[in-house]
Amino acid sequence: MLQSKKFMTVSVIVLAIAFLSQSFQNVQPRPPKKLKNIKAFPATMTYNEVDHQMDEFKVDLGVKCNYCHAPSKTEAPKLDMSLDDNPKKEIARSMIRMTIEMNQKYMSTLPHGDTTTVQTITCNTCHRGAAKPFAKLPEVKAIVNGTK
Ligand code: HEC
Ligand code: HEC
After folding, report:
1. Hey, which end of the chain has fewer CB within 10 Å, N or C?
2. 126: Cβ below 6 Å to ligand 2?
């Protein structure tokens, strides 16, 4: 009984070592991931920067990646982030361009002097955790609709 328990333990360890050395052999330095279909972000952005931005989108809009991204043609339900099949992605591109323009054109010209104190506009400035921002105060609605 004790013998077989010992044997079991030893075989588990041997197996684990075999498995580990096998997987170490298979580890090769992965080439850095490349961006495939970027139209709204600055061309200088790296994959990691875009990826980080995506985590912000998720939180700022209170959604998951599949809110804007479509499933892969061959590996569904896995998402293929480079596809443009989900119409929300193009809306998001407009929003990216709009946000960049607001910062470059309006925020950066504020007379604060010290630019580190200027708050930039982000998706969260409007969205606050919702895909469709709650916006329409009755007053604003009347102005927009031209009834005031
Ligand atoms: C609010 C919409 C939205 C959400 C949510 C979102 N994305 Fe994106 N994603 C985009 C847009 C728009 C682009 C393309 C940007 C451009 O064209 O400059 C993009 C591009 C990407 C790319 C680059 C693909 C390429 O062209 O190579 C990756 C990777 C990516 N997203 C990953 C994610 C991940 C992971 C999540 C979830 C954590 C996520 N996205 C959530 C809108 C979104
Ligand atoms: C100045 C305010 C503002 C900013 C900044 C902003 N949005 Fe929006 N966004 C809106 C409004 C308002 C709507 C709703 C438009 C409508 O009525 O369909 C919207 C709608 C959207 C939608 C479509 C939601 C749906 O389900 O129809 C997406 C996606 C989106 N925004 C993504 C973003 C992303 C990503 C950013 C940051 C890069 C961003 N927005 C920044 C105001 C903003």
Report:
1. N
2. yes
Cα of 143 to ligand 1 centre, how many Å?
34
CB atoms under 10 Å from CB of 83, counted, come to 15
Tokens at 93, concatenated? 């591109």
Atom 43 (ligand 2): residue with closest C-alpha? 126
Answer whether 89 contacts ligand 2 (Cβ < 6 A): no
Three-state secondary-structure class, residue 80: strand
Domain boundaries, the chain: 47-145
Verdict on whether the full-model pTM lies above 0.85: no
pLDDT at 18: 53
- Ligand closest to CA 127: 2
Which residues of the chain register pLDDT less than 50? Answer: 1-2
Query: What homologous superfamily does CATH list for 47-145?
Result: Photosynthetic Reaction Center, subunit C, domain 2 (1.10.468.10)
